[in-house]
Write a structure and sequence with these properties.
single chain; 417 residues; six-stranded mixed beta barrel; 13 helices; 10 strands
């Protein structure tokens, strides 16, 4: 008998809930336009949060991918006491090719080290000219940067030793000077110096620092020093760390070696800097995450505004339906049933707004990914949190109007005109 009574009460409770849910939907769709305007704040808030987080996550993934494309376990060594980014340096004396060779040959933690020096020059072919970055280096540059020659070939050792004026160009330079033509074995001029093109680098695209990695011309570093720079300087050394060592250990090794080679006494500050690409990745992703969090927090305010809108409309709805509430109370409906009806109505409004907001947010996130050319990586956890928060808004802001409706006096409600 007890089991039968429990089953009966459960069935009655389920029937009551579905009836309450049906009445809530009827009330919502009876005033469809007002209901839509009511949930618009929830829709905008959820959509904004999801879109911001999706774009932010895509930007973070792109930063990590692009920094990784610069090379694995990569360190950049630059003269100067402080550095703010790749290619910057202080007033300290430059490095030499011998410094780069010493880093590679004397340090067990370093797999390969590539010396470089750079100038902005105009490359000329026929009637076409294009301002680009000319970098003096050797084949170790391609190794340390995980970058291959797409067509043609790399430098011969004889060309590197003798300083022969040959060059390898990036895809951007190729398109600007030659269009779709094959530039291999043709000649361009760099600072009035004729240079034979022996290869074209594979396309890499833009870096995390906003620069076009394919906008470059590589020449043998000794040819660069003699024919272009007029000195023996090396302004940047790329160093690739062996897999068995950490970048932190390799950084300390390089610092100790260069302090000795540059005669820096104990207690004196370094006149050079070692930059770890992992640190750059952490810095850039940290900035991206902070900005995403701030924008998402601002967007989340729309959820509160939407909740206030729901509470306002529900209070208006209670006033409009006072006589209906009085009739329900008079025919035997309990205060709990009336409270549940209006609370369910509020929750349904916020849930509908949450679902629409999720769809709109994903659409905006996808559009932002396409426009910004970043990966589309929606976060299921953020979507779930945004949806749960929208439902909570319905509970919190719908409770007061629902309680007010439940506490109406049936006689006064029936007298209401």
């Amino acid at each position: 008998m007890a089991a039968l009574n429990l089953t009966f009460r459960t069935k009655c409770g389920a029937d009551m809930f579905f009836e309450t849910f049906r009445l809530a939907l009827h009330a919502i769709f009876r005033n469809a336009t007002r209901s839509f305007l009511t949930v618009l704040g929830i829709v905008i808030g959820v959509a904004a949060v999801i879109a911001m987080v999706t774009v932010g996550q895509g930007s973070t993934d792109q930063v990590e991918e692009e920094v990784a494309s610069l090379g694995t376990n990569l360190l950049m060594v630059m003269p100067g006491a402080t550095q703010q980014g790749p290619g910057t340096g202080g007033s300290a004396s430059s490095f030499t090719i011998a410094d780069s060779d010493a880093i590679e040959s004397e340090l067990a933690s370093i797999r390969v080290s590539a010396p470089t020096n750079t100038r902005m020059l105009t490359a000329i072919f026929g009637n076409n000219n294009y301002a680009t970055t000319v970098t003096g280096t050797d084949n170790r540059f391609m190794d340390v940067r995980d970058w291959n020659v797409a067509s043609g070939r790399a430098f011969y050792e004889s060309e590197l030793r003798s300083g022969t004026m040959v060059c390898i160009i990036g895809e951007t330079v190729k398109k600007e000077l030659f269009g779709n033509s094959d530039p291999v074995d043709t000649f361009i001029r760099l600072k009035q110096v004729s240079c034979r093109i022996i290869g074209v680098m594979e396309e890499k695209g833009a870096s995390s620092f906003g620069t076009d990695q394919d906008d470059l011309v590589l020449v043998p570093i000794r040819a660069f020093q003699r024919r272009i720079a007029g000195d023996r300087d090396v302004n940047l050394i790329y160093a690739s760390v062996r897999d068995a060592f950490t970048t932190e250990k390799a950084t300390v090794d390089i610092e100790n070696l260069l302090r000795d080679r540059r005669n820096i006494d104990f207690g004196e500050e370094d006149d050079f800097g070692v930059m770890d690409m992992k640190q750059i990745t952490s810095m850039l992703t940290g900035i991206t995450n902070v900005l995403t969090g701030l924008l998402s927090a601002v967007a989340a305010v729309s959820l509160l505004v939407g909740g206030i809108g729901i509470m306002n409309i529900m209070l208006v709805s209670v006033t409009e339906r006072t006589r209906e509430i009085g009739i329900r109370l008079a025919v035997g409906a309990s205060e709990g049933q009336v409270l549940l009806q209006f609370l369910v109505e509020s929750i349904v409004l916020s849930v509908i707004g949450g679902l629409l907001g999720i769809l709109l947010g994903l659409a905006l996130g996808f559009l932002g990914a396409v426009v910004l050319k970043i990966p589309f990586t929606p976060d299921p956890k953020i979507i779930l949190i945004a949806f749960a928060f929208s439902a909570m808004v319905g509970v919190v802001f719908g409770y007061f109007p629902a309680r007010r409706a439940a506490r109406l006096d049936p006689i006064d409600a029936l007298r209401h005109q």
